[in-house]
Amino acid sequence: MQNVKMPIDIEPGKSAQKRSDYSGVYRLEDLKRLKETVNDSTGIVTVTLSCKQDEQGLTVLLVDAQTDVRLPCERCGSEFELHLKTSGIFTPESKKVDEDIIPSTYEIVATDEYGFVALRDLVEDELLLAIPIFPKHDENDCLISQGEMSWGDIGEDEPSKPNPFDVLKKLKSQ
């Protein structure tokens, strides 16, 4: 199968009228913000895009993207591979359309002054959101076992110290 490059940006209105479908790839090294987040920036992001108009006449972009990235485990510090997969339904912002009629399942995406949607940036944003806040191995694969995980030691109770406000109580009572 040949890997076809996806367009950097698209004109959603015309693509929806033509009912265009795209299937291709972006190189991970071209996604600058994602490249800064992961350990290995070699690889590809597989993307499928379907453009259509829904029953209300809204332009709809159905985007699916997936890739494999290497991240440091937040628990043990070693590197591991994580499969990122994301999908979403987007509609371009428009002054002609009232936001109240847009279904809640749609996300509104910004357009530039020419009406184009930055598709590569949209895919990159969605992949960044798919990364867990604390990426880590499965407990079975991690170098640190469940028994070695420590959440802090409370230790023995400290001897009680005198309350510094006792002096103020004595002054108030006088």
Spell out the helices and strands N to C.
HEHEEEEHH
Main pleated-sheet profile: 5 strands, mixed
Sheet/helix structural class: alpha+beta
For the record, the count of structural domains works out to 1
- Give the percentage of residues in beta strands: 25-35%
In round numbers, the mean pLDDT is: 85
**Quick one: overall form?**
flat
Question: Nearest-angstrom radius of gyration?
Answer: 26 Å
Helix content: 10-25%
Structural description of this entry:
The chain is of the alpha+beta class. The protein has one domain (12-135). Helix content is 18%, strand content 28%. The chain contains four helices and five strands. The chain has helices at 12-17, 32-37, 119-130, 166-173, and strands at residues 21-27, 44-53, 59-72, 79-92, 107-109. Strands 1-2-3-4-5 form a five-stranded mixed β-sheet. A hairpin with a 6-residue loop joins β3 (59-72) and β4. The model has no long low-confidence stretch (mean pLDDT 85).
